Amino acid sequence: MIYVFLADGFEEVEAIAPIDMLRRADCDVITVKVGETPYLAVCGSHDIKITADINERDIDLEKLPGLEMLVLPGGGAGVENLYKSETVKELIDYCVANKIPIGAVCAAPSIPARLGYLKNIRATAYPTFRHYLTEGVAILEEKEKVITDGIFTTAAAAGVSIGFGLELVRVLKGEEVSKKIAGQILF
Fold first, then answer.
1. Total count of domains within the chain
2. pLDDT tens across the length of the chain (187 residues)
3. Which of 116, 145, 174, 181 has the largest CB neighbor count within 10 A?
4. Whole domain around residue 107: which residue ranges?
5. How many Cβ atoms from other residues are within 10 Å of residue 185's Cβ?
């Protein structure tokens, strides 16, 4: 199972495109609402409302052995809301400890960087969030749009969301499946 975390202020295309690519690859994707309210509605940075599958407090930390990947969309306000979530931090810790892939796009690579997990990792992020990578001693790759290094896949911005999603598919299902989907969507 793959958890895609959504918090108010998330960048819509950075969540939807990877979800779409992963589901095309027959991955079990669960969207997770982060925040205080019990409702599952999440409002993106462009006022597009999405209903998440579950709330973060519905995650059973005892059942995480089925976790295959964690995905963190960007959006400045959304990322700050994700960073405030203890559940998000616990799952990042769990993924790092168990070598489970983590995908983060745009502003979201700042989260594992601030938690100290991108040391000596090649990574990218949205330009105004790249200082978190350099402060966290990541190896900043400004010219690369999507990078996988170790368990981390990072991407620069909304404009590379489909490429980011296809890279997540490659990480989980292999090059052949990723290329097949890319061909089907004329990427």
1. 1
2. 999 999 999 999 999 999 999 999 999 999 999 998 778 999 999 999 999 999 999 998 777 778 999 999 999 999 999 999 999 999 999 999 999 999 999 999 999 999 999 999 999 999 999 999 988 778 888 889 999 999 999 999 999 999 999 999 999 999 999 999 999 999 9
3. 181
4. 2-184
5. 13
